[in-house]
Amino acid sequence: MRQPGGVTVTAEPAVAAAPAGAAAAAPDIRRQELAAFLRSRRERISPEQVGLVRGGRRRTPGLRREEVAQLSAVGVTWYTWLEQGRAIRVSAQVLDAIARALLMDPTERGHLFVLAGVIDQRPDYDCPLLSPTALRLMHTIAPYPATLQNARYDVLAHNRPFAQVFGELTELPPRERNCLWLLTTSTHWRETFLDRDEMLADLIAKYRAGMAEHVAEPAWKERLDGLLAESAEFRELWERHEVATMSPHVKRYRHPEVGLLRLEHRNLWMAPQPQAHRLVAYVPADEETERALGRLAELSGE
């Protein structure tokens, strides 16, 4: 039945059936975790932080439930049920409003959506916060090219040698700073990457394998939809349903100033960084490439 806040409430049966093992108990446990998390976030925020007048005596620290409901534009009864761990359904839009009302940071927001079992519909192309340690490590690898990437192959940062070999990605719109997008659409990458066709098929297979764990997430789906709309070649390869895993491999590149480069791709996962960040290093596969990267560094005055 419909209740305040525009949500559907699951009616409680007159006689509750006994849970059939751990699987049946899991939703109850998650609802209780969600209730406790919301209470903890509510109690840490003062009325003044959200522009409310403190008023008279308050029996609980932080905000009252009715104040959170007011700030979120949802019904007081419905929000109370949510904090009580009731079996109610909630939309992404309502969770977004609650997260904003409770001044949640990105980590807390993500935790809220996971506990509620709801996919966050807000697409995000902004570069996430990268640790100084990860950035320092990436730059220390010079004169070898290196990037910091997430699981969707978005290039979050890169060092100077990477820009010299593959191009300066900061000149591109944020949504195009993605290895899969560039392999599919970039004329420069098509001409420079001697193994481009093989690399594209392999990367699409890896993206399909990785997406299995994120199939309903907006950022993954938006990336896929954009590529399907952009490229007939991508659509043909995607329909093959090939899958692949991460593995070291050597690829060849033609550089206009130092000639042939043979580079081995090596991945270093940056746990406990969020969103599966990894350092991708492009290591010389032979002495000739080692010397060529040294010459490239000299040409740039580094």
UniProtKB/TrEMBL annotation:
Keywords linked to the UniProt accession: DNA-binding
SMART domains assigned to the protein according to its UniProt record, in alphabetical order: HTH_XRE (SM00530)
Domain (HTH cro/C1-type) ranges: 37-109
Keyword flag DNA-binding: yes
Keyword flag Metal-binding: no
Any one GO molecular function term: DNA binding
The species this protein was found in: Streptomyces lasiicapitis
Protein name in the entry: DNA-binding protein
CDD domains: HTH_XRE (cd00093)
PANTHER family associated with the record: BLL4672 PROTEIN, BLL4672 PROTEIN-RELATED
InterPro entries to which the protein is assigned, alphabetical: Cro/C1-type_HTH, Lambda_DNA-bd_dom_sf, MLTR_LBD
Domain of life the protein comes from: Bacteria
A Pfam family hit: MLTR_LBD
Signal peptide: none
